[in-house]
Amino acid sequence: MNETELIAQAAAGDSDAFGALVGPHLGLFFNGILRILGNRADAQDALQEALLGIYEDLPSFQARSRFSSWAYKVCVNAALMFRRSHARIREDSMDALTGLGEFDDAGHHLDTATALSWSVAAEALDEAERRQLRECLVQALDDLPDPLRVVFVLKDLEDWSTEAIAARLDQAAATVRQRLHRARVRVQERLRAHVQGRPS
Amino acid sequence: MKLLPTCREVRERLTDYAEGSLSPRERVRIWLHLLICSACTAFYRGLRALPGVARFLLPPEQPPPAEAAQALEGALRRIQGHQHL
To answer: CB-CB: which of A31, A130, A192 is closest to B46?
Structure first.
């Protein structure tokens, strides 16, 4: 059975067809939810709710978009709903803008020796080094206060516009940009320290 | 206001700069600073590269993790439970 047939069968109430339909995309869906929630147990619960939402909304699915793209959006929205009702909001030290570097009294930087672009170095990594950098990134995202992480994920990983994030999270666009910047600076500092072999 | 902002001022505003949300005057001040400051330029380049690097480093897990399969099993149980009511 091809995907179009699976969609029709699942929309008519065939749960086996639904399992076959979503099965190939489970990793994608789980990953998207996990990025937002930052906790595997929460991600499992939110994915279950998202899958039920997909099943219920299948009769209204329009074939104009790809099934996986449509269902992925349902998953991201389910994660945001789950976050709003369950998430442990960690706002600790959210205002501290660390990771900018060291400055002298006049506000000019002191760290010219370590200012080389870590991102250029990151591109030249072999497989093992890339795995280590991935672990560093996962840890850096996990350590972000929740309001910073969700903005970073929606903007830099999911490619939402600042205006869409502001509307979805009910925040001013300026707040979104400020939180995004704080998140980027912290994540960049962790990756840069890792690439340069410094403790972060 | 000095024509050139300090490195600290620049680094605090680089996402606003990249998003085009600064006034034209502020934008020019930061642009001039970046023109002559290699450290802040490297910092800015790193911030601009971050989304691409993060997406590159975080592809979906394959095969799907056990939690995803368990979520599907749970969803299917609830669907089938509803159908038998």
So the answer is: A192
What is the token pair recorded at B61?
């897990």
Look at B53 and A122 and tell me if their CB atoms are within 8 Å: yes
Closest chain A C-alpha to B24 CA, distance in angstroms = 17
Complex-level ipTM: 0.84
Report helix, strand and coil shares of chain A as percent, to nearest 5: 70, 0, 30
Do the beta carbons of residue B80 and residue B51 sit within 8 Å? no
Q: Considering only the beta carbons, identify the residue of A29, A111, A156 that sits closest to B51.
A: A156
First vs last Cα of chain B: how many Å apart?
72
Spell out the residues 6+ positions from residue A26 whose beta carbon is closer than 8 angstroms to its own. Answer: A47, B64, B68, B69, B71, B72
pLDDT tens readout for residues A87-137: 555 555 555 556 666 666 766 766 554 444 555 555 666 778 888 888 999
Q: What is the reported pTM? A: 0.80
Interface contact B18, partner A, CB < 8 A: no
DSSP string, A12-56: TT-HHHHHHHHGGGHHHHHHHHHHHH--HHHHHHHHHHHHHHHHH
Cis status, amide bond into B64, omega within 30 of 0: no
